[in-house]
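User: Hey, my collaborator sent me this sequence without any context and asked if I could get a structure. I don't really work with proteins. Can you help?
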Amino acid sequence: MKDYDLEQELAAAMLDRSRQEPPYSYDVDGLVRSVRRRRRRLQAGAAAAVAIVALGAGFLSRADHDRVSLPVQAPTAPSAVLPPSPPPVEPPSASPSPSASASASASASEPDSVPDSVPDSASASASTSDSASKPADPARTTSTLLLAALRYQNPAARSQVDPAAVAALFADESTYQRIWGADSTGVTCGSSVDGVLVAGEVLLYQGVERLDRAPSPTFDGSTGKVTDLTCRTVAGGSKGGGDPTVSGFYGGLVAAAKSGDSTAMSRLGRQFVTANLRSVQGPTAGTCSSTTTPFWLADNPSSGTLTHGWTVNLGGPYAFPIEIDENAKIATSCGK
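Assistant: No problem. I've predicted the 3D structure and written it out in structure-token form, which is a compact way to encode the shape of the chain:
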């Protein structure tokens, strides 16, 4: 078959098909009417829904009205709470004079600076009242009093003592004069000392020797101030009682400073300070200072399983902690 015949046959087949199935046609007017009917149905449904909601809200509003007899208000933003109205002010019995009016105007125009200072004064008064009502710690008072006596009895440190501060440790002036006396030796049982160990009881030392007299202060229960001081008899000497490491090392340093023994530091260090601490701190091991030791006071004792400690003051402005190991040697000092 030739191409021409094929084309003719295809054309005839297409013509026959077009006659059997005519192309679709659309009714534009009918389509528009259908869309309009659907739109009216949707609008009617929406209107009915709105009417139902409004009717329900009306019923709820009426029920609330009948129950509380107050109109129902739509929820609004929370309103600010108003402070209560001030009480009515009585009118003045007579009209103020021009000078009074001027004074009132001047007061109103001045800056409100006085109330700003009132809380500070009140806080200061409250703090002072708390301090005055809280009794002083007897242990701290004892250490403070004895340290002042050590300083006063040392000519080089006497100027560091404030008599007014010392007097404030006593219950009254007469008690201060009676116990402290003219040279503070009333606090140390009539003897000049250069070492004090405060561990519940007080022990006094001259060099490495412990005195056989020990002070025992009495305190006012409400203020914590000294009301009396008595001296009791204890065992004296350098053996037994107290802490031999503390009195041996620091008392030995005091005695060496008075005698001018320059070799005492290394000798006492080997006897009372561990080799490790000497290697770390060198010549200041156990003393935290390169100056000579005029006197010593050890207080605030602490204890561990195998160790115990003290807080030591060697006449400087600050005390430092020490720890003594199971071999009765100073293992740490100055926090190291």
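In plain terms: The first helix runs from residue 3 to 20. You can pass these tokens on to your collaborator as they are.
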